Amino acid sequence: MKDALVATLIEEYSTVEAFASILALETKALTAVSPLEQLPPIVEKKTELIGVLARLETARDTHLAELGFPAGWSGIELAASADERVATQWKLLQKAAERARRVNANNGELIRVRMEYNQRALKALQVSVPRKTNLYGPDGRVPAYSGL
């Protein structure tokens, strides 16, 4: 039973590392001038890996229950205190998850800054001008001047 738990922890670690790699690609895309072409496959892969991580967490909780431990954080902590192999894999997984969390938080900040910049740019483009001197309408066309 503990072998199955250790195997699941190893697979979780591997998946979190893959997720962190995708987050690193996302960082590069978010710092590019035009990230729109790069982001959809990154988001797709992130979504896939989140699904795998959810499945592995469920499997870990099942293994914990089979070993007589509660589910979740408290259960894995108890299992780790009872078995060195579990403890080693759990520590590796925690470190990888923390690295991924930091990169993800950084990406969130990059997105926030980009959104803020875009909002300021939109405001600059929407400067109030007198109605009769509209340069162009919302459709991008210059309206016919009817003031003559």
TrEMBL record:
InterPro entries: FlgN-like, FlgN-like_sf. It comes from Paraburkholderia podalyriae. Keywords: Bacterial flagellum biogenesis, Cell projection, Cilium, Flagellum. Belongs to the FlgN family. It comes from the Bacteria. This is Flagellar protein FlgN. It holds the Pfam family FlgN. Required for the efficient initiation of filament assembly.
